Amino acid sequence: MKFRRRTLEHLGDLICGNLGSDEPGATSPKYFPYRSSSYITDFFGDIDTDWEHDGSTRHRWVAGVLESMLAEPHDGPTRPPDSFCRLIDRLMDPGDADNEGPDRPNALRMLNEVLAREGFEAFYAEDRHCYLRHIGTGATSSASPNPHRPLSPAEVERRDRLVAYLDKCSEDQLIEDVLLPLFRQLGYHRITFAGHKDKALEYGKDIWMRYTLPTQHVLYFGIQVKRGKLDAAGVSRAANTNIAEIHNQALMMLAHEIFDPELNRRVLVDHAFIVAGGEITKAARNWLGNALDAAKRSQIMFMDRDDILNLYTVTNLPLPGAALPTPDPWGGFAAEPPF
């Protein structure tokens, strides 16, 4: 990834605190703290790097460091390297707010004026950390977080609200309100939903989408979605679906071509996701694992409710409208939606 030199030097000015004045009545107040040589070294130490200022012109030296950071390995053109993302988060630390509140609206505006030249914008998430978003695709620097990390109390509450929503939503709502925003946040694009009004040409897939590798090669994914539990019972129950049926639909999906309107040609799906809004039972996982191993297939992957909940929560996606707390007449929030 490469930014313009002018962009890097302007970011260097923000990090060094060169812009604005602390004088009373100044027309351009200072919103970033001034950092001398030693404090610049401390700043880069705070983000777990070994850069030490060499005494040269501060903002130009910082620009050179930023250029080296952006040359590090990263996940494609829409996600900067981790070290650069940590730098932005440290730069926008609410504890460094100067001449404004902890939300730092003026500092955020100044930063985004610089980042917009390169197609990015910074934003504060619910955890009060600052992340980067690619303006064109919406992919964020928090798009590949660890879904298995411990959740904060606020995240646990959001997860519980999403659980309640999944218990009552339809399959189309699961796709439109939860899965489509989730996969967009994770960096997939050209996401197409087949829908259930006309299933004539679905061929086992509810969604197809593309993912661009860092090498610019493109992979195509198809998704088979079921709202309820997937099991391995010999007789399907009303709310459950037999895993063998879903496996057959996934095979049908892999064998059927899709038309990519951007390329004006038909392509095969490279990988298939089986996504369950409920649990995939242990017996179903064992059956599917044995079937995939016997066929030596690595094209079929599966996700169940816990995977969806954890990914949706740690990526800081807004909850679907029906999962948000309901205002009560007294100005607070009702514990349960009114009937």
Task: Explain this structure.
By secondary structure, the chain is an alpha/beta fold. 37% of the residues lie in helices and 17% in strands. It has helices spanning 5-16, 37-46, 58-70, 82-91, 105-115, 153-168, 171-185, 243-255, 282-295, 305-314, and strands at 120-124, 130-134, 189-193, 207-212, 218-226, 229-231, 240-242, 257-260, 265-268, 271-276, 300-303, 326-327, 333-334. The strands form 5 sheets. The chain has a 5-stranded mixed sheet with strand order 3-4-5-10-11, sandwiched between helices. Strands 1-2 form a two-stranded antiparallel ribbon. Strands 6-7 form a two-stranded parallel sheet. Strand 12 and strand 13 form a beta hairpin. The chain is elongated, with a radius of gyration of 24 Å. The N and C termini lie far apart (52 Å). It comes from Lentzea miocenica. This is Restriction endonuclease.
Radius of gyration: 24 Å
- The secondary-structure class comes to alpha/beta
The number of domains is: 2
Classify the beta-strand content into a percent band.
15-25%
What is the H-and-E element order?
Answer: HHHHHEEHHEEEEEHEEEHEHEE
Describe the global form. elongated
Low-confidence stretches: 329-339
Lateral strand order in the biggest sheet: 3-4-5-10-11
User: Distance N terminus to C terminus?
Assistant: 52 Å
Mean pLDDT: 83
Q: Kindly provide the name of the CATH class of the largest domain.
A: Alpha Beta
Note the total helix count. 10
User: What is the architecture of the largest domain at the second tier of CATH?
Assistant: 3-Layer(aba) Sandwich
Count of β-strands: 13
Largest sheet data: 5 strands, mixed
What CATH calls the topology of the largest domain is Trna Endonuclease, Chain: A, domain 1
Q: Please give the share of residues in helix.
A: 25-40%
